[in-house]
Structures are given as C-alpha cells and as structure tokens.
Amino acid sequence: MNILILGGGGREHSLAWAVKQNPKCDRLIVAPGNAGIAAIAECASFDICDGGMVVTFAEENAVDFVIIGPEAPLAAGVADRLRDAGILTFGPSEAAARLEASKAFTKEVCDAAGAPTAAWARFTMSEPAKDYIRDQGAPIVVKADGLAAGKGVIVAMDEETALAAVDDMFSGEFGMAGAEVVIEEFMAGEEASFFVLCDGLDALAIGTAQDHKRVGDGDTGPNTGGMGAYSPAPILTDALQAKVMEEIIRPTLRVMSERGTPFQGVLYAGLMIEDGKVRLVEYNVRFGDPECQVLMMRLGAQAFDLIHAAAEGRLAGCRVNWADDHALSVVMAAEGYPGDYAKGSEIRGLDGLPEDSAHMVFHAGTRSAEGRILANGGRVLNVTARGASLQEAQERAYAMVDGVDWPEGFCRRDIGWRAL
Ligand code: AMP
Ligand code: GLY
Questions:
Q1: pTM, two decimal places
Q2: Which of 133, 163, 351, 385 could lock onto 397 through a cystine, CB 3.0 to 4.6 A?
Q3: Judging by beta carbons within 10 Å of its beta carbon (0-12, 13-18, 19+), is residue 217 exposed, middle or buried?
Q4: Rounded-to-integer distance, Cα 415 and Cα 227, Å
Q5: Whether residue 332 is found in the same domain as residue 313
Q6: Domain with 390 in it
Q7: pLDDT of 74-110, one tens digit each?
Q8: Which residue among 107, 142, 153 has the greatest number of ligand 1 atoms within 8 angstroms of its CB, and so is best to mutate?
C-alpha cells in the first residue's frame, strides 16, 4: 500500500515510524516531514491545508491511504476533499472536526449526549459575558470559541482576570476565534487524556496518557504545546475508562451520527478526574503531540492496522494487543521556547543513541543540511523510551537526553513526576 501522512512534527514522525514497521506499507510519503522523518520516508512539500493540492498529489503518486496528523487540514476540510475523490482517509470531516474547532459546538453536543462536563454559557457580546462572570464568581474559565493554537483558554482564579480576558477576546486578540466566547465552570482535579479510534459507529480505546503543559520543572512558567508525556496514565483505571466510554465517548459518537456528521478518526478526550468522578474538559480530533509518540511506542506496527480499520469502518472486530509496559517522552526545545527562539543551531550526538523498539528519538522541528541536523522549531526533539515500569522508561529517556549534544536546547527534568 502507498501511504501519505500529512504533517511534520514529532507526532507524524512517530506515526511514520509505526506505519513503516507494518508489512502492508510499500511506499511511505510524509508532507512536509522533517529531518527524522526523511530517514525513514520520502518527504514532499506542498500546502497540506489545500484540499485540491493534497488530492492532486495523492492521485499523481498513486496513494492508497492518507493519514492526517494535525488539526488545521482537518478543520479546512481536507479529509472531505480526499474522500470525495475516492481516496481512503483517516481523519474526520470538516463538520465532525468542529468538536475541536468550536468549543460551543462541543458543549452543545455534550448537552445533547448527556455527557458530564462543566456548566457553560456562550456570548457574542462583552457586557452579558461580564454580567455572567460577576454572577457566577471566580474561579471561572474563559475560552475563545475557535482554534487559537492552545492560547485561547484563560483559567481565571479571580473575577478581574476573567473580566479582562473577556475584553481581550472581544477586542480581537484571538482574531475570529474570539468572536464568540464560552464561559465555563472551573473544574478542580487531575487531568488525563484518553484516545479512542472511531469509525463513525464503533469506537476502540487505544490508550491513556498525561502530558506536562508548563515549560518549567514543577509545572511552572507559561503554557506550551506540551513538554513531555507518558502512557499509561495510572489515574485512568480500567473501571474509569469503561465509564468514560459509556458516559462520554459513545453518547458523543451517537449524537454526531444522528446529526449526520459521524466521527471517523481519533478522538482525544481531555478529562478532569476528581474523587472518582470524570468530566470532559475538551475534545481534540487528532492525536496529541507528544502523547502520540508514547502511544505509538507502545502500539508499534499494529497501530497501522487499527488506524486502517478505523478508516475502512472495520473497528468492530478489532482488539488492541497491549504490552504491559510504559512509555515516556521528553521534549527538547530551543532555548527561549515558548517565547522567541533561534533556529539553525546544530544538534550532535544523535548517531550515538540506541534506536530500537524501546528507544527512539522522534524529531519535531528539525531539518538537515549537508548531513547535519539543525533545530528548526520551538519543540525540536521527542526523546522517547519504553520500560517495564514508568521509572525505567524515565531513566532510559533521560539517559538518551544526556547523550544529545545541543547547548542551545533545554528540557524539563521531571517528566512523569505525577505518576512516580
Ligand atoms: P483547552 O484548550 O480547552 O484544552 O484548555 C486548556 C487547559 O485549560 C486544559 O487542559 C485545562 O488545564 C484548563 N481548563 C480548560 N477548561 C477548564 C475548566 N472548565 N476547568 C478547569 N480547567 C480547565
Ligand atoms: N499536547 C497537547 C496537544 O497535543 O493538544
């Protein structure tokens, strides 16, 4: 089979790594890819959010199956264009991708599904939003409705911060994403992520993870796209996972299907757990990054069979073969991230690191130039390891981190602390 993966981060490197190990994969192309991906696949360069271009490329290259990594092409309807052209695709339609692209839409679906989530209200004008905040009191959460690159959520511990957030959003700070604002009850508890493959009708849980959003050790400093992750998340016991499937995931899929917009792809549920009670924080319609890297490490080549089955509507007969182990990924980022950072510094020492089913350095923002690996983004490497225990996975990952010679980079030294 000829397979095209859209995206060029650590998530897509780990997807390519798993797909490549599967004997069904003949030719693997990734667009745009990165230096790590280029070592295992062909890389191509075109606008992956332009459905017409993606279809043309796929047709010219006899692509049998397209796997879409990031949310932007999904929200732009690239999966629809591919399916219209008769090309098998993993990833939701533009209509179903609204589960990530609009927070108010997700809340409506949750209400229709009876899925437990924070109490909420939506506003298109500032004064009624502020009255609602004064009425509810702090802590309270203010969210731009649309996609805002992870920056559109303000968890306000006092009323003033919440009121200021409303002003910021309606003054256009988040562009069109902030034209509508959702205000939510603050939920206390521990967060964890739950990943489910969906084929429109059936759903298959493929793993749990926890990430570390803040840039600094001890969860300090500004938010990032994620500084590390591990799987499984011990707080999501089998019993809790079954409850999430029954109370949140299946009812959501039923409502999506009844609305005429069935969900096919991976549903990434961000959950809040408090005293054995689970509520939905948000949905994403793609794999998490770096959560995908730890899931792929644990699933290996079978990940491709499961993703393929989801795209073909064959999940009902599928099972996951779990290795009873743990995986942990440490993000190495360019000094300055998530603020300003420089590109182009050289990364040495990668050749000396182990590379096998228990050790992998997935590349995020890298490019190669004359045989050298150069940093080319904020999050640059995802140093990932498996172990019989989380502690062993952590030790292996940090042993690899210590073998990377990159003075312009940094990482957190405490990935996994919550579970250890
Ligand atoms: P989101 O972009 O919706 O994932 O929100 C980003 C982060 O904000 C989440 O991962 C939570 O840590 C936090 N958050 C979002 N909504 C709530 C809520 N209702 N209560 C508490 N924390 C929240
Ligand atoms: N690591 C968080 C995300 O991918 O949204």
A1: 0.96
A2: 385
A3: middle
A4: 8
A5: no
A6: 326-410
A7: 999 999 999 999 999 999 999 999 999 999 999 999 9
A8: 153
